[in-house]
Write a structure and sequence with these properties.
There is one protein chain. The strands form 3 sheets. The protein has a 6-stranded mixed beta sheet. The protein has a 4-stranded antiparallel beta sheet with strand order 2-1-4-5, with no helix packed on it. A hairpin with a 2-residue loop joins β11 and β12. Helix content is 65%, strand content 11%. It contains 20 helices and 12 strands. The protein is an alpha/beta fold. The chain folds into 2 domains: 309 residues, ABC transporter transmembrane region fold, CATH 1.20.1560.10; 256 residues, P-loop containing nucleotide triphosphate hydrolases (Rossmann fold, 3-Layer(aba) Sandwich).
């Protein structure tokens, strides 16, 4: 939590002025019981109306000054807290963006969302209350005790006993509740996680009629959160009644002691009223301090959780290359996998093993294999979504780990397996690839991606509004727009990660042809489960269980690679069977019409 205070550096003035004005407010508040004592002892006892009015105006002046100082303190504390939270959010979001896929997978999306929203809001509230009350409450408590000693030492001893007793209660409850609030936030993570899964997978849940099971699962997580919140709430709720009991008992003792001393002419009635007022001020401030401690406890727990994200090293760290001589043999190649391995965090074994492959400028490389063979994992090492755990990946003769992340991403255009579009116009989505793309460049990319035709049919064309996640587009339309988004930047390396799965064979073939015509020097990686998609590639890499089973052209692999031959023949058999069924159905339909 302490490390997060660096984000307060631009609000040093506010962090000084807010407590300062609160101290002024507390000082004026401590004068009020003395004025009241003077009114009782002098004004009321002597029936001196002018004196009562004069001292009444003094009370009004103290109230107005206190209001002004309090409002000023509130302004500065709010400004500092909101500014601190804004800078913290920016820094945390930037840090999350610098994390690679392995780290975000390990932490979890729901956890990161909680850190960015709920946790930062709790820290903001904690900072706000600390600036307002952290100095004010102790000043009032100890100031009231000191003022009580100026009135009467014997009566003030009640304060000496009461304040430590209250401190034991307040800090004891605080020590118990701090770890419990951490558990509350962890339970909240689980609720947010299941909520996110349900909302993102609502169509699948309904398709398999799993609504009732999901409701029960959500209810279970929600009940667990409610139980821990109730438990910690009960403990925290003890603070107010226990402090009230102690303070009220002290007030009874104080009134009794004061009454005896008034009867003995040691104290005046006004001084007893002043002592009772000071005890009331202590009660109010300790209740505020208790609430402050509860909020600060939550803020500290949340701050530590946020710091835990910052403590995770950024996956996109740039490393210095030490052995340049190793790269000399690869300078002519665009992309090189040099005995690269990949193991996901927490996995029991490598997902990719000893990948050794060189791809030249302008080549088209097909990557094919069964489900789980590591096709996507292979290409995700090029833009450093995942770093090789052994060996190296080189782009233009340079280890990808030695590139600045922005420089590496400028060379690469990637179309992920899942087509993701954002709320906004088609133009805005395409310009994610190139911010200042011209109209001509956008239409050229759309044409190459086989998306021009359906975009021209949309109302407003490039200004057509896409809903979040592209929910008002078909699967094929979303895939073609994501391909256009990658093409508009005219990358040196284009990665199509099974991004044509929703396209028919004719559109897929036209897409591959137009990409090649777009830039002959572009190096293209096509990840697919269909041999038809990689049939004409310059080089086909066949993967099986994370290892290379064969490398070559379509013809070469049919002769030398049993895995590729099996995939090709099974798909050819299904295609021919599908065509035969279509012809049979059409023939039957024709006879039926003829008979009618």
């Amino acid at each position: 939590m302490k490390k997060l205070l660096v984000f307060m550096k631009h609000y040093k003035k506010e962090t000084v002025l807010a407590p300062l004005f609160k101290m002024l407010e507390a000082s004026f508040e401590l004068l009020v019981p003395l004025v009241m004592a003077a009114i009782v002892d002098t004004g009321i006892r002597n029936a001196d109306i002018p004196y009562i009015i004069k001292m009444g105006l003094v009370l009004v002046a103290l109230a107005l000054i206190g209001l002004a100082t309090a409002a000023t303190a509130q302004y500065f504390s709010a400004r500092a807290a909101v500014g601190f939270a804004a800078e913290l959010k920016h820094a945390l979001f930037a840090h999350i963006q610098s994390m690679n896929y392995a780290e975000t997978d390990k932490t979890g999306t729901s956890t990161l969302i909680t850190r960015l929203t709920s946790d930062i809001n709790q820290v903001q509230s904690g900072v706000n209350l600390v600036l307002r009350l952290f100095l004010r409450s102790p000043i009032v408590v100890f100031g009231a005790m000191i003022m009580a000693f100026t009135i009467d030492v014997k009566a003030a001893l009640v304060f000496v006993v009461t304040i430590p007793a209250l401190s034991v209660v307040v800090f004891g409850i605080m020590l118990v509740s701090i770890p419990l609030y951490k558990k509350v936030q962890a339970a909240l993570d689980k609720v947010l996680g299941i909520t996110r899964e349900n909302l993102s997978g609502v169509r699948v849940i309904r398709a398999f009629s799993r609504e009732e099971e999901e409701r029960e699962m959500f209810a279970g997580y929600n009940m667990a959160l409610m139980d821990i919140q109730n438990f910690v709430g009960k403990i925290s709720a003890l603070m107010n009644p226990v402090t009230y009991i102690i303070v009220n008992a002290a007030t009874i003792v104080l009134i009794y002691t004061g009454a005896v001393q008034v009867d003995e002419n040691i104290l005046t009635q006004g001084e007893v009223i002043a002592l009772v007022n000071y005890m009331s001020q202590i009660l109010v401030e300790l209740v505020k301090l208790a609430n402050l401690i509860i909020t600060v406890t939550k803020a500290v727990a949340c701050g530590n959780r946020i710091q835990g994200i910052f403590d995770q090293p950024a996956g996109m760290k740039v490393y210095t290359e030490e052995k340049k001589e190793k790269e000399t043999g690869w300078n002519a190649d665009r992309v090189v996998f040099e005995h690269a391995n990949l193991c996901y965090p927490g996995a029991g074994a490598d997902s990719l093993t000893d990948i050794h492959l060189a791809v030249k400028k302008g080549e088209t490389v097909g990557i094919i294999g069964g489900t789980g063979s590591g096709k996507s994992s292979l290409v995700q090492m090029i833009p450093r979504f995942y770093d090789a755990t052994a060996g190296r990946v080189l782009v233009d003769g340079k280890d990808v780990k030695a590139y600045e992340p922005g420089k590496l991403k400028e060379k690469i255009g990637i179309v992920p397996q899942k087509a993701v579009l954002f709320r906004g116009s088609i133009r805005e989505n395409i310009c994610w690839g190139k911010e200042n793309a011209s109209e001509e460049e956008i239409w050229k990319a759309l044409s190459a991606a086989q998306a021009k035709e359906f975009v021209e049919e949309k109302e407003g064309q490039l200004e057509f509004e896409i809903l979040q996640g592209g929910k008002n587009l078909s699967g094929g339309q979303k895939q073609r727009l994501t391909i256009a988004r990658a093409l508009v930047k005219q990358p040196e390396i284009l990665i199509l990660d099974d991004s044509a799965s929703a396209l028919d064979y004719a559109t897929d073939a036209a897409l591959r042809k137009s990409i090649r015509e777009l830039d002959p020097e572009m190096t293209v990686f096509i990840v697919s489960q269909r041999t038809a998609s990689v049939l004409h590639a310059d080089k086909i890499v066949v993967l099986e269980d994370g290892e290379v089973a064969g490398i070559g052209t379509h013809g070469e692999l049919l002769e030398t690679c049993p895995v590729y031959k099996e995939i090709h023949e099974s798909q050819a058999h299904r295609e021919s069977a599908g065509k035969q069924e279509t012809v049979t159905a059409q023939t039957a339909l024709g006879k039926q019409k003829g008979g009618n």
